[in-house]
Prior knowledge:
With about 200 residues, the protein is α+β, with helices and mostly antiparallel strands.
Amino acid sequence: MPEAGAEGWRIDPDPDPDACAALLAAAFAREPAVFWICAGSTPVRTRWFRAALRTHAGLDGARRTALVGADGRLLAAAVLTPPGATPTAGARALWAARTGLRCGPRALVRTLRYLDVTDGGAPPGAWTLEFVGVRPDQAGRGAGRLLLDHVLAATPAPRGLYLTTADPANVPLYRRFGFAALRETPLGPLSVTSMSRTEG
Length: 200
């Protein structure tokens, strides 16, 4: 665990799912896939992340990690899924009901389309980095780098990590952290890049 920095930052290995959802909803306001799914609506985006993270919290071995400021507020959050972890049929049905009712049928259908082209793409045995985001007022201050460095060091991933991104600007960023592009998949107006990082 990184030591508290000059700004008094610390790592929280088990942050509240709803607090992470609120942070990620703000961090992903302009991310192309989330914007496409949630139609640019802040309330829909917040409910979408809340439904996703509540379902994710029920997975065996699922991890949430946050960087917390001196004032106790989350600065950045990351969400990871271990190899082979998938929601039960009941959990999927509950997620679909929550998402459809609270976010609208369009958000549900577009989420399912995104999952259809990305699920099953992880290399065997790899962890999946589902989300990593920084509170917008903390962008450019090193919070994201500190959190991602911690996550990469602390995750027991001998078979590596996997992620997808629909933001072309993220591809060179993840390359700097050792990820390599595997493929690009078109989806409506999006181009989804799948990337992996193996232990070196």
